[in-house]
Amino acid sequence: MSGRTDWLKDAQWGVFFHYLAQPASSRERSPLTAEQWNEQVDAFNVPGFVDQIAATGANYVGITIGQNSGHFCAPNATYDAIVGIRPSKCSRRDLIAELAAPLRERGLRLLAYLPSNAPCNDPQAVERLQWRWGFEGAPPGEHSPRRTGERLAAFQRKWEAVVREWGERWGDLVAGWWLDGIYFADEMYRFADPPNFQSFADALRAGHPQRIVAFNPGWVEHSPGRKMLSLTAHEDYTAGEVDSMFPVCKGRWVESPDGGKAQWHVLAYAGQYWGRGEPRFPDEFLVGYTRHVNEHEGVVTWDVPVSKTGEIPAAFIRQLHRLAEGDSRRGAR
Questions:
Q1: CB burial class (10 A; 0-12, 13-18, 19+) of residue 84?
Q2: What interhelical angle do 314-325 and 46-56 show, nearest 10?
Q3: Rounded to an integer, what is the distance from CA 194 to the centroid of its chain?
Q4: How far is CA 84 from the centre of its chain?
Q5: What is the residue-wise DSSP string for 138-155?
Q6: How many whole angstroms separate alpha carbon 232 and alpha carbon 3?
Q7: What is the average pLDDT across 84-100?
Q8: Helix, strand, coil percent content, the chain, rounded in steps of 5
């Protein structure tokens, strides 16, 4: 084993945030403009956010760079050159780098979230990146048996170039990636020649060979036998996305079809859904389930809401404090 995930196993649990482009008000349904997005990202209070996280006792942080809107909270010249959107929908401020540095000063590592596909709500980006959805007659997020079977090699090479720029700029400031939407592993990535899982992982580790990578095939509930899955030997930890079924952890490693082993890891939302709502579980569940997983050398990441300016709701701050109090290592810190 490479040892890349030893720090993650030792960390035991952390927090995750869906920080995305949001309408300027609850009444506004139109997408944000580039300037409105920049205003939102510029308003993010990095010192305040880091202080909140450090005070909770969380051991690492994950955050979205962007998702389906095409807005990303870090600049990327490669992306801009490919999609040709002006003004850029990538923020001027590199929020990822600005978060990672002070978090590291507090002993916390940063994981970055990115979809593995083009932003599906941005038609120009979809066209220029040469992306097509791999299920006929089904929108993103819904499963259908009618798979198109396209490799999309041109798209993959472009997306690898995009992530490579971010990785080379961030270096060891960003400790890992969580890649969403690897629904078409056999059609797109499971090949001996590039583009494939290896070339994608290599691009994701650009600038920091020890950067850990997870490829998300979808909710554990949808997996064969409802088991934790590792897709490839080229990933380091399981994506472990769950909704309502919380899997039992029986040990540190999950084997992949090609003989690899990935760190057992689960990602779940503590609110009503990803990035929103009130706490859906009593404190005792979060503490008990996290302890169960940790006792078997697994890792748990809890998604909690965050405001546009970086404030974590008080109810979740309190719940994370309770989670830290239940951390078996707390007395040794």
A1: exposed
A2: 40
A3: 24
A4: 25
A5: --TT---S-B-----HHH
A6: 17
A7: 98
A8: 35, 15, 50
128: its two tokens: 């220029």
pLDDT at 2: 66
CA dist 137 and 139 (Å) reads 7
**Identity at 195, one-letter amino acid code:** P
Q: Which residues contact 194 (CB under 8 A, 6 or more apart)?
A: none
Q: What is the pLDDT of residue 106?
A: 97
Q: Smallest Cα–Cα separation from 315: which of 268, 282, 273? A: 282
Each residue of 60-77: b (16+ CB within 10 Å) or e? bbbbbbbbbbbbbbbbbe
Fill in the DSSP letter of residue 166. H
Preceding omega of 87 cis (within 30 degrees of 0): yes
Q: Is 333 within 8 Å of 58 (Cβ atoms)?
A: no
What does pTM read for this prediction?
Answer: 0.93
- DSSP for 18-49 reads ------SSTT--SPPPHHHHHHHHHT--HHHH
